[in-house]
Recover the amino acids of this structure.
């Protein structure tokens, strides 16, 4: 199973969409609310060099934004 | 060659106007497609909504979720992250150009809403998502404990400052005019905070940094073109207003502000092309007004299709 992290904010529509998509595909993930988890936020900003969410990490791969195609590909899901 | 589907209706934009148009169109059995940057538009950036009928209070985020659910119920196809970039004609058919393709359709509804006005200074594009932000509701959490600047002097600038006061260390309010134009009550609340420093008659002339924003150059209007100084900030929130998202739509008649001119039936000057919501010259930019206008536009497009096809 791939290790999946979702860096998100509660106010962000595409964060909610990304999580809904993972839920629908029975993928478990760590949800990091960058609004309350300062370390998580700094980690994300450092890793991606930008300040927008969602960011997904799938094992050692990073996806900025809810890029369904790329996420499906990395998780081996059939669309 | 790709087989190009011939849609009855293409809707550009998926804010309240575009979504309502799509629901009405789907219920009329139209073959339709929605192309958009994102679902929800400005509603995504709205905190609490207390004037949308049926909800004494709902957040923008929740309302957008409900919009999305409603479209799913009707199986409406929404192509996201594919904004419209132009309109044309092919024979007698309107053609919608997006960042992803070109789609002919028998009718079109333009519901592209409004977008944030930019400062148009060096560094603004380069540092987008790297310290430059346009939506405090969305991006304020990234600036916890930091020093930031807010450009603007109206209600939205002061609302941004109010949100940032909760978490940022210091906020410079950079206001172009001699005095802010925000509501008095809001001004008093914000200016009472010792985190706020208001700089009137001032403009940001450049945003600088390395990987992220590190500072801004500002100039006081009274100092003339030679004056200016540097402020160390890690974030710049731009709140200088909204403009109709219509600059790429040539051929459509617009007013001086760039709003598309429509009649009572949401018709534009071009045959088969309708417009609805904040991108039009209809007064009172409200979520509920935009939703109603979207419904009207879809019904008008339906009548047009019945008469012409």
């Amino acid at each position: 199973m791939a290790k999946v992290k979702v860096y998100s904010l509660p106010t962000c529509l595409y964060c909610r969409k990304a999580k809904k998509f993972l839920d629908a595909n029975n993928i478990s993930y760590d949800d990091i609310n960058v609004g309350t988890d300062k370390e998580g936020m700094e980690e994300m900003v450092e890793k991606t060099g930008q300040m927008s969410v969602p960011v997904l990490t799938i094992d050692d791969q990073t996806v900025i934004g809810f890029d369904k195609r790329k996420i499906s590909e990395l998780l081996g899901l059939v669309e | 060659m790709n087989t190009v589907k011939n849609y009855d209706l293409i809707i550009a934009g998926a804010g309240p106007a575009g979504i309502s148009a799509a629901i009405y169109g789907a219920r009329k059995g139209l073959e339709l497609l929605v192309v958009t940057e994102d679902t929800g538009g400005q509603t995504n950036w709205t905190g609490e909504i207390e004037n949308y009928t049926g909800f004494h209070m709902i957040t923008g985020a929740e309302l957008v979720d409900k919009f999305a659910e409603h479209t799913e119920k009707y199986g409406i196809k929404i192509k996201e992250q594919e904004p419209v970039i132009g309109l044309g004609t092919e024979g007698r058919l309107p053609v919608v150009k997006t960042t992803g393709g070109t789609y002919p359709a028998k009718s079109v509804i333009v519901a592209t809403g409004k977008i944030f006005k930019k400062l148009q200074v060096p560094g603004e594009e380069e540092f987008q998502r790297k310290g430059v932000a346009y939506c405090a509701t969305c991006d304020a959490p990234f600036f916890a404990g930091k020093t930031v600047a807010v450009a603007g002097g109206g209600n939205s600038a002061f609302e941004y400052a109010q949100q940032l006061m909760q978490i940022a260390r210091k906020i410079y309010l950079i206001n172009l005019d001699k005095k802010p134009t925000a509501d008095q009550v809001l001004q008093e609340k914000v200016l009472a905070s010792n985190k706020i420093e208001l700089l009137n008659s001032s403009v940001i002339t450049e945003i600088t940094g390395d990987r992220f924003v590190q500072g801004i150059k500002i100039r006081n209007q009274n100092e003339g073109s030679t004056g200016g100084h540097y402020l160390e900030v890690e974030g710049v929130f731009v709140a200088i207003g909204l403009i109709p998202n219509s600059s790429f739509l040539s051929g459509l008649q617009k007013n001086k502000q760039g709003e598309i001119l429509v009649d009572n039936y949401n018709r534009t000057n071009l045959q088969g092309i309708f417009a609805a919501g904040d991108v039009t010259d209809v007064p009172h930019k409200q979520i509920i007004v935009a939703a109603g206008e979207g419904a009207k536009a879809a019904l008008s497009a339906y009548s047009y299709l019945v008469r012409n096809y």
Notes: Chain B has a mean pLDDT of 94.
